[in-house]
């Protein structure tokens, strides 16, 4: 058979636009799943699963019937175990999916019809309070609400409902005062609650020198779209967390400018990374 006849006998399927769209969607999903696995403790577990699969294939090649029988009986139990093990990561992934603009543009579950945005006076009050507290090594944790309502975390604290001023924030976090322990939640121009409990981040990438306050700031930013400001009690330095990422030791002007910029728009992870990259290009130690 000649080469031309051989090539003409080969079946080459036609690729339609729907096939291309499906390939793009599947590639996008697989890529994001791999990124999610890589950024969580699931990566180490995945490597363990791969080893088990390789061992099962080895048993299949050698026809080790007893091992294959045990493996087949434990598959269903293993799937349930994986769901239990990955429950925190799966919940976080679904929460992050719910924060995507692609979804929230169509579905606005639990979100305000008209966002309560903070004013320029609130920006100045928060920034001033952070750096005044940092100067005297007073620790603070301030969560600024964006689109996602923080009622779940607000209920863990004590209602305040006061206009944001630097004096109010400084008094709340003053040592040995009833409200100093925990976080405050800022909604619009008001401090709605203090002494709020926040979820701690279990990220392995966080600097070991950073304490519980920074882990709480990162934790709330991982599960909500909030802007979280952290004042270190040990160093007096101010950090900001968005989307599970942290800028450490940010200067006063940079923080004020960014909060002013986000007064009428959300600070998302993408803009946060661009901002952090810009600060690094300017030679600032973050």
Summarize the structure.
The chain is α+β, with helices and mostly antiparallel strands and 286 residues long. The chain is 52% helix and 13% strand.
What this model shows, in words?
Its EC number is 2.7.7.85. This is Diadenylate cyclase. It comes from Lachnospira multipara. Keywords: ATP-binding, Cell membrane, Membrane, Nucleotide-binding, Nucleotidyltransferase, Transferase, Transmembrane, Transmembrane helix. Belongs to the adenylate cyclase family. DacA/CdaA subfamily. Helix 7 packs across helix 9 and helix 7 runs antiparallel to helix 11. The protein starts with a helix and ends in a 5-residue tail after the last helix. The protein has two domains: 71 residues, no CATH class; 162 residues, YojJ-like (1 (3-Layer(aba) Sandwich), CATH 3.40.1700.10. Strands 2-4-3-1-5-6-7 form a seven-stranded mixed sheet, with helices on both faces. It has 286 residues and is α+β, with helices and mostly antiparallel strands. Helix content is 52%, strand content 13%. A hairpin with a 6-residue loop joins strand 5 and strand 6. It contains twelve helices and seven strands. About 5% of the residues have low confidence. It is elongated.
């Amino acid at each position: 058979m000649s080469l031309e006849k051989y090539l003409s006998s080969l079946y080459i399927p036609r690729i339609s636009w729907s096939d291309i769209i499906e390939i793009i969607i599947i590639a996008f999903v697989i890529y994001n799943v791999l990124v999610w696995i890589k950024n969580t403790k699931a990566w180490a577990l995945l490597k363990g699963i791969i080893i088990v699969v390789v061992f099962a294939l080895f048993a299949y090649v050698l026809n080790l019937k007893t091992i294959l029988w045990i493996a087949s009986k434990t598959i269903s139990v293993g799937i349930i175990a994986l769901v239990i093990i990955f429950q925190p990561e799966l919940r976080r992934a679904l929460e992050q999916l719910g924060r995507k603009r692609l979804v929230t543009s169509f579905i606005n579950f639990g979100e305000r019809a008209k966002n309560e945005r903070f004013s320029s006076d609130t920006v100045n009050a928060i920034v001033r309070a952070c750096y005044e507290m940092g100067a005297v090594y007073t620790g603070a944790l301030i969560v600024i609400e964006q689109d996602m309502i923080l009622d779940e975390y607000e209920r863990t604290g004590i209602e305040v409902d006061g206009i944001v001023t630097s004096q109010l924030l400084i008094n709340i976090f003053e040592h040995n005062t009833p409200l100093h322990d925990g976080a405050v939640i800022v909604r619009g121009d008001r401090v709605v609650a203090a002494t709020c409990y926040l979820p701690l981040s279990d990220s392995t990438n966080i600097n070991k020198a950073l304490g519980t306050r920074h882990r709480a700031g990162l934790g709330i930013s991982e599960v909500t779209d909030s802007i979280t400001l952290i004042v270190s009690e040990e160093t007096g330095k101010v950090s900001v967390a968005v989307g599970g990422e942290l800028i450490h030791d940010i200067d006063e002007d940079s923080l004020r400018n960014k909060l002013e910029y986000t007064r009428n728009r959300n600070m998302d992870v993408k803009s946060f990374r661009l901002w952090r990259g810009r600060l690094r290009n300017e030679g600032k130690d973050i």
